[in-house]
Amino acid sequence: MNDLSQYLYFIEQSHLNQSAGRIEASKKDAIAAIKILNTLAKTLAKEDKCYNIVQQLSRYTLAYYDQIDKDGLSLSTKMEWLGSKSYMPLISFSSSLNSADSKFIAINEMYIDPDSNLEQVPDRLSVGFKNVTIQPFGSTSHDLTDLYQDLLANCSFVSSVLSIVDSQAKTSLKLQDLISPHGPSNKYKIVFNFNGARRVVCVDSRLPFPNVDRSLFLSSFSDHSLYWPAMVEKAFLKVMGEGYAFSGSNMAMDTYLLSGWIPEIIRIRNNMLPPQFETLWKLLQEGEVLLGVGTGKLSNELAKQLNLISHHDYTMVSMNSDGSIVLKNPWIERENINTRFITIDEFTHVKSLYVNWKNNFRMCSKVTFIHRGSSKYFFENPQYSITNKSDEIQDVWLLLERHLSGEDISIRLGVYKSENGDRVLIPNQFEFINASDRDTNNRLYLVKLKIEPRKSYTAVVTSSSGCTFTLSCLSNINTDIVKARFANPNSLPVQEDEWDITNSGGNWSFSSFINNPQYSIEITAESNLQLALFSNSPKTVVNFHLFHSEKGSINIPLRTFDKKKLLLHENYNEGYQIYHFRNLQPGYYKLVLSTFDVGVRDGYQLLANFSEVSSVKISKIWNHLGLFTEKRQIEWSNSNRFKLHFSVDNFKSKMTFHIQHRNGANEYESSSSYRPGIRASIFHARTQAPIQINENWSESLYGVFVDCFLEWPGEFILLVERFEQGPGRCTVEIGSSTKFSLTT
Amino acid sequence: MNTNLLYVPLRQSRPIDMGSELREVIRKDYFQTPSSFEPDLMRISNARNKITLLTNETISQKSEILLKEYYVYLLAVMKKFSDGCVEFGWYGTLTYGPSGPTKSRSLKVELWNIVFQLGSFYSQMALQESRFTDDGLKNACALFQQAAGCFEYICQLVKRETDQSSNSLAIPRDFYGDTVLCLKFLMLAQAQETIWQKALGNTTLKDTVIARLSMSTSDLYGQALEYGNRSDYIKLEWINHIGVKKFHFKAAAYYRMSIVSQDSFEYGEQVALLRVASSSCDSALKYKKYVTQLVVEDLRGLNQTIKDVLRGAEKDNDLVYIKPVPVEKDLKPIAAVSMVKATVPSDLETPVETRKSLFNDLLPYIVIQVAQAFRERQDKYIYERFVEPIQALNNMLVKFITERGLPASIDALQQSENLPDSIIQHSQEILAFGGTDIIEDSITEINKLSMECQQLIDHCNGRLTLDAKEEDMMRQRHGREHWNHQTTEVAARALIERIEKMIQYLDQARDGDSCVLTKYYEIKPYLEIYCGGYKPLSEFIPNSDYSKVDKNMSNIITDLRNAVNQVSVLEEQRKRFLSQVELKAREHNILPSVIEEFKSKQNEMYDENGNVNERSFEVVYDKHIKLFSKEMKFMESTKSTQISLENDIDTLNSRFISDYNTRSSDSQVKRKEALQLLEAVYSKYLEVISNLSEGSKFYNDFLVKGNGVLSECEDYLNQRRLESRELELTISKLLRKEVEEETRATSVGAPITKPGIWSPDQGIKFD
Asked: Fewer CB atoms near the end CB (10 Å): N or C, chain B?
């Protein structure tokens, strides 16, 4: 290890430690790096060309050291360092010096890549790894355009390499700039764009040589000693994690990795090139895009007839006047260059058009985050908002990159035209800008937007498994990516509970509606309040109802469904209900959460956020009539009255009776069921003095409630009457603040 | 207090906790809860209590503040509550004892009572003024005029009420014109009398002027007397007092004029004037019974003076001047000069609200109901104007394409293997919608709804059956001769007919359901292929031989495919359009607009009974629904796009059919048939989905309307039961009477049960 490579080791470790919050360790590493530089500065003469490098590194290191304990690192930057420890982000020490520079490589030092993944090779192939010497380096454009794949199934990568080298004159992209050193070495460093940053990948100088007369790495049929592209390929295979047993990627992804040009995959539908193809072709000539195509599945017979390969990527070389297109095949079997170019005039079997756009945007902001995987509720997915702060429509591209994990993961980036960049609670809450896009197992996902002046948008990332992502926002104005928040700044704790056999009362057309879970809400200052209810099962049909309530009845469960006191009357939905109450007045409210059907068993989450600080309190209402409860069922048996004797042993008993008619065996009635008029009164059993007389008949679906306060202990009678004699039964639920007993 | 004049006594009110009454009204009929308005409720309770405690002759300036404060509160209450929301009771105090109480469920009548109290207040304040100072007299005069103004205002308010053709308000009888007008003129007369009195103190004033002031006072008392005589509420003391005053001031006027005649040496006229004055005194004296001593003494003094002067004047004329004495009718009438008018206190007509108006934010439930109704109307509008037509247009388009065998015919030709994009799209769409599961769930749901509809009909029939059973039982119990209640068949004819109609509709719907079911089972195996994904689809669609089509045909196919591709572009556009419409509808909640309209124009929104007129909100809906005019334009354009697209496809397809002469290979035919079958299945699938959605809508509508019928059946049953009980009671009274008559004839007496006490051991009484 030379001194500078040792310096780099310490400075990278320092960055890692700083990102992990180990400030002291970070400082210690930085000091170790500074010591190396000090030693070098002492030993080098000022005229030495390395002296200038030491100076640049010293400037960088001192500035870096000063900010170590300043906590200025964003979470995203920390994630960049911590997310991929094997592939360090590229450090720019100055405009002309970065951490991939050959000066940091100890060229003569023995180096064997410890990553055993690279030793994976295709089945039934015997392969030996041998050191190669890259001497001379060789990078004539002719040799590079003659690069081809042979045994290795990496058509997408080779097509990407070819598309870059073929357009080199127009794009100024230079493949050789990715690798250092440009000469013989035991170790090579290659810079790729992946996992949210430009990262440095190290490989040793060994390449695989199969025991057959074929090549397992990228070769040029015009210069058989052109090995460095194979080193770039090797770095790519290392990053992909499958070594030489590579199973494939796609050209747009690989081109992004190599060049950082923004990838777009256009599905070719209905056998026709997309309408924007002519424009793209023009841009290709101008060096603004790189283009390629991918075929779909083809039978061997059809593939032969069409001279195409099934599931294969090609670069686009030229267009003929008749509209036919010449494709360049990255694969050549046994150096038979006759199959290199193919002309096609129908696009039935072409499935994808790969476009990589040169990044002409002036601004880029990005955020790196972890997705915990398939979320139970949509709103739990990571969400970020962007706002067009200008007065003009702006082109903004959002690029989502899934960090490499080796898993097959399905992802999607949904963009919603939200209000103030709010968190999206349900998929149809706001206008879904890219609704026609689908989930993809590609690592990169591009959404091109035209964002309206002064409008905000929320991007929602969904993923089938847990993974790290980087979301980049490219634009011409300052457009920060901000974590999307709920509509209001203050949130109440999430209420998590369930509908079970006792409280799943169904919708308000059932007598059991009042058994549903209920909450009291107290508003102390005018406030906006957003409520969101989610059932665990997306199929459960749910709703909530908010009623005006009184201070005196705040902890008493609902006794009827009074439409007049109802603040909203929305339809039941599958899986959710949300509503944003604006300017809710101070007062007391009662919230009922219900499923459409009776007896549903499912869990729920209730979210509440509000605008005014400390203005909203929520508490659960316990659905019991009293501390002590009893229940009786009495058959009407064609009578119109019955008496229930009960005795109370204590003074000052608060009692509540809930009387309901039942026609059949069901524990609930529907609004259309027959209900006789019922009334109930209370008498002292011995004196028969009335304690509470109710003269009015009630036909309420939810039954009759009688509250009474018994000053003295004693035996009492509850007299229940119905308007006319008839069948059915009557349930009487009794709740009391003190112990009581039913004597009949 | 000066007893020479009268004050109008305060009316008495039954105490009432107005806040608590209104609290109950808010609880029952308003959107918010009463606790949100507790301060307002307390304020109005206090104000009402304070005005109830006012008593005659103890009033002060503060009483006016209290009355006016309550008056302003009442106006605020009238803006927000219906006129009949609270019952008030007031006693009249003009008669010997308190009359009434007159119970009235009207805020208006309450307001009139407060105006009356203010009139009474001013009359009492006038009497508190000094009769010996100019200022006292001036103030008293102004106060009497304000009192008169209050009674005048009551007359105006009552007239406004009676002029309304739809008026159903019971106006308390003591607020009818005669009584209140009597009070008004009494107050005006007393104001005029005060001016007259002030004039007396002015020694420079001529007798003519005083005579004319006096005559006017007499006239005003005269009018008061006339109305007083017509009223049942003005007591005799007052009638007599007014009568005495009327003739007293007439006599005084003529007496003053006699002095003028004497001064101008017209002795005959002097005698004639004095004779009129004397006879007026005689007339006044006829009213002296029950009149206060002070008034009678004044009269006697005047009478004595007039009589003495008359005696001397007659003697002088008979002996000395011998002038002819004209009869009364030949005398020049005394032109009365009225210096007074009824002054309605300005703050009654345009009250000044000093504090925050009461119940400012209180929203009558009707406002919320209107918003809810508008929301439902908007939902219907969106469904009928956008969702339904787009579905229909899409279905027509798919049918159009499928009938022409597209895109299967060109797919089979161009794409010899793999799945064509249209098939993939259909498969994705069917899967995204829930595949066959969702259809089967919908069918189950529709069956459930159909059963619920049947149950609803059964419930309706059940209510009528119950009535029929109860009728039969009563008829049996009381005999046909006594039980003359209509049979259920007759009484419930209209309901029976409606239920039969419901049964017919339900039968038709079930027929429709079974057609949809058949259609579904026909396509189900193919839908399962669609839902199976790539593998079953590619197994179902055989590969064909690849044959390259010639350039010309390739161009035709490209054009045709371009046109067919436009179909999916159009469908995608429509899908996005519908989701935007849905969001727009959700974002533009009509409730705030309705509330805003109510708050800004609430004065215009109440009808004469203080109820909110729901029709006055129509303008809000009208304005709101114009939000969708851009969308309406889209509907027109998408329709015309479809027409022109269909024409293009038709033309291109004809060219394709006529130019494509090459005989297809067997494998190509098979592939084409499979593709066309799947396209046809997709078209039918859309029909099934649309049919199921219509079915669900039908049953849901049926349930809403059916519940209305059920509620009518329930009302009918309740009404019939009440009638039965009434009839049963009549029959039992009749029988009891017969028995009593029989018993009276045979025995001395029978024990009588005391009614009205209800004990748990007795049966329920419904009398």
From this structure: C
CB contact under 8 A, A724 and B463: no
Per the CB < 8 Å rule, is A587 touching B28?
A: no
Is the pLDDT at A165 greater than 70? The verdict is yes
Backbone dihedral region for residue A188 (phi beyond 0: left; psi -120 to 50: alpha; all else: beta): beta
The chain B residue lying nearest A433, using CA atoms, is: B576
Q: A641 vs B764: CB contact, 8 Å cut-off?
A: yes
Over range A255-276, report the average pLDDT. Answer: 91
Mean pLDDT of B435-448: 93
> Within an 8 Å CB–CB cutoff, is residue A674 touching chain B?
yes
| Spatial distance between the Cα atoms of B714 and B732, rounded to a whole number of angstroms | 27
- Strand runs labelled E in A639-701: 641-648, 653-662, 678-684, 690-692
Contact yes or no for B546/A305 (Cβ under 8 A)? yes
Here the tokens at position A306 are 């069409």
Q: Which two tokens stand for residue A285?
A: 């000539």
* Range of lowest pLDDT (A342-351, B210-219, B357-366): B357-366
CA A707, A713, A715: angle at the middle one, nearest 5?
A: 80
CATH architecture entry for B434-546+692-736: Up-down Bundle (1.20)
Whether A116 is covered by a domain: the verdict is: no
Which residues in B lie closer than 8 A to residue A348 (C-beta atoms)? 414-415
- B580 contacts in A (CB within 8 Å)? 431
Give buried/exposed letters for A325-334 (b at 16+ CB in 10 A, else e).
Answer: bebbbbbbee
Mean pLDDT, to the nearest integer, of B420-447? 92
Chain B (577-596) residues lying within 8 Å, Cβ to Cβ, of chain A: 579-580, 582-583, 592
Domain boundary pick from A340, A357, A374: A357
B764 touches chain A (CB under 8 A): yes
Residue A606 one-letter amino acid: L
Render pLDDT for B130-161 as a digit per residue (tens, 0 to 9).
Answer: 888 889 999 999 999 999 999 999 999 988 88
Q: Which CATH architecture has domain B208-341?
A: Alpha Horseshoe (1.25)
- Which chain B residue is nearest to residue A582, measuring alpha carbons? B592
**Residues A331, A293: contact at Cβ < 8 Å?**
no
Position B763 confidence tier, pLDDT thresholds 50, 70, 90 = very low
The pLDDT of A529-548, averaged and rounded, is 95
Q: Read off the tokens for B331.
A: 């005398």
**Distance (Å, whole) CA A452 – CA B366:** 40
Considering the entire predicted model, what is its pTM?
A: 0.80
CB pairs under 8 A between A and B: 111
Residue B30 near chain A (CB below 8 Å): yes
Please indicate whether, in this complex, the C-beta atoms of B34 and A550 are within 8 angstroms of each other.
Answer: yes
Task: Give the contacts of B280 (CB within 8 A, at least 6 positions apart).
Answer: B247, B248, B250, B251, B254
pLDDT class for B21, splitting at 50, 70, 90?
A: very high
**Residue-wise DSSP of A245-305:** S-----HHHHHHHHH-PEEEEEE--TTS--TTHHHHHHHHHTTSEEEEEEE----HHHHHH
Please check the confidence at residue A552 and state whether its pLDDT lies above 60: yes
Contact list in B for residue A552 (CB cut-off 8 A) is 35
ipTM above 0.85, yes or no: no
Residues 695-724, chain B, touching A (beta carbon < 8 A): 707, 710, 714, 718, 721
Domain count, chain A: 6
Note whether A605 and A494 are within 8 A (CB). Answer: yes
The closest CB to that of A305, out of B415, B418, B546, belongs to B546
Structural domain that includes position A132: 124-253
Write down the pLDDT at residue A47: 77
- With an 8 Å Cβ cutoff, are A672 and B456 in contact? yes
